[in-house]
Amino acid sequence: MLPSHITRSGRDSRLSHPSASWPPAAEHDRRYAWWCGAGWLLVACSVLVAGHVPARAEDMIDNVLPAHCVAHVMDVPLMSHSGSPVIPVEINGKSGLAYVSFTQEDIGVFADPVMNYPVGRTFQLQTIAGQSYSFATTIKSLHIAQGEAGNVPAIVVGDRLETINDQPVLGIIGYSVLSNYDVLLDFVAKRMILFRLSDAPGCTAMAQWLGAGVTPVTLIPNARGVLTGVELKVGDIPLRLEVEPGSNASVVRQKDARTVGLTHATLHDDPHVRTVVGRILVGHRHHFDNVTIGEWKDRALDVNVEKAKYNLLGMDFLRNRRVLMAFPQGVLYLTPPILSKDRDPRIPSALATHLATATVHETNGSTQ
Asked: What residues does 293 pair with on adjacent strands?
């Protein structure tokens, strides 16, 4: 299987999208075309939601969002909160699941032969473990909750389908779609809500909707303007981490670990860790107790220190929280961890997390 985490190092071709329009291709690169494709999905969802009966002002959406503050909404169940979040989708008439990934820049699909995806241009990919290659394709029809789109540009991220609870995992819903919305991942209630704010007065205090103890964190763009990073300080030293529920562990690359003072001698006594990301990264699991993120100071965080290409804030931190990625506002809102009322079994699959699955090996040989 090809590495499934995609960030493009560049676009070397242009792809037309019959369901969307934009200025001539000579004036815009292929990324614009992909994002316009996601924008068409937004339009489709808006039309469908606009046909609903207007909600009463006292109504709440999943006991979290005041309905009068929401102009358009898609509300779907999270089928797992132990591994990567997955949601129900329909692709080319086939029902199944899709992972939700902030750092996956485009919609991804798994190239099952039955799906008969057309093969487009081959290009280079940048993954957390290094570089790889894949090809572009087109989804004939995509359904997510109340939204649908046709002839959607996509990227092939693997060559075999896995299943979760007997349902096939068909693809990955990435940044090109999610960034059009405020995205609430409620890992406690196991719901994902994609919404757009209305113009109603008093509808800007989003943090208050999530409950007590919420901290806002400014989203930091990368060199391509993708708003998926946050600043995390170890002591007084800032690091940029990508917010990624597609990894079951948080990762700090070795270069940044040295910046915060971790030496080979320091890591020698830490547990060994192996992370599967298409290939295997080998490193150490280190415990910090002086981490600051947003208004939370001197917190504890375990990270994998590995020869990675960038840093990740993964599910070990996000699990059991309400996580609101307010992309239009450029802010991440986090609640403190809330104990879930049920205990979902971790899915025993290499795709339990679509990006990175880490296993810790203690020095005595036992495994976590």
From this structure: 296
* Burial of 212 per CB tally in 10 Å (0-12, 13-18, 19+): exposed
Q: What's residue 172's pLDDT?
A: 92
- Per-residue tokens: 97: 């699941």
Residue 344: DSSP 8-state? P
Are 91 and 97 in contact by the 8 Å Cβ rule? The answer is: no
Bridge partners of 312, per DSSP, are 242, 251
d(CA 264, CA 269): 9
Amino acid at 29: D
Q: What share of the chain in percent tops pLDDT 70?
A: 71
Rounded Cα distance, 304 and 144, in Å:
34
Residue 264 three-state SS: helix
Mean pLDDT of the region 179-185 = 93
Q: Per-residue pLDDT tens for 22-38?
A: 222 222 333 333 333 33
Nearest to 84, CA basis, from 228, 242, 247: 247
The separation between CA 312 and the C-alpha centre of its own chain, rounded to angstroms, equals: 11
Q: How many CB atoms lie within 10 A of CB 53?
A: 5
